[in-house]
Automatic annotation (TrEMBL):
This is Methylcobalamin:coenzyme M methyltransferase. PANTHER family: METHYLCOBAMIDE:COM METHYLTRANSFERASE MTBA (PTHR47099:SF1). GO terms for molecular function: methyltransferase activity; uroporphyrinogen decarboxylase activity. Residues 19-98 form the Uroporphyrinogen decarboxylase (URO-D) domain. InterPro entries: Methanogen_methyltrans, UROD/MetE-like_sf, Uroporphyrinogen_deCOase. It holds the Pfam family URO-D. Keywords: Methyltransferase, Transferase. One of its GO terms (biological process) is porphyrin-containing compound biosynthetic process.
Length: 101
């Protein structure tokens, strides 16, 4: 479910007590603008990118997440779950991006 229209509702939750974990259908960068400093973020490397993408694209996207969200709190993860057919090299690229941050 996309939370794009309802992101501001998350501001009603206690500051510093929650984790926003979208499932790759919500624009995490829009959420980051609205919720900046209010909660930690989790995700949001899409399952399709992990399955169909190439390591360079996964790494680049994961680094963008680190750059945008690490200062306020980031738990690197896939959006939803890592699919069983995800390419191992793509998962490794996601982890490498997180470890360098």
């Amino acid at each position: 479910m996309s939370w794009n229209r309802f992101i501001d509702y998350f501001l009603d939750l206690p500051k510093g007590k929650c984790i926003f974990s979208p499932d790759s259908t919500t624009d995490i960068f829009k959420a980051g603008e609205v919720l900046k400093g209010h909660m930690c973020f989790m995700g949001d490397v899409s399952p399709s990118l992990l399955t169909l993408g190439i390591p360079e694209d996964v790494y680049k996207y994961a680094r963008r997440l680190v750059d945008e969200f690490a200062p306020q709190g980031l738990i690197m993860s896939s959006g939803c779950s890592i699919p069983p057919n995800a390419k191992l090299e793509n998962v490794k690229a996601m982890v490498a991006a997180a470890l360098e941050g």
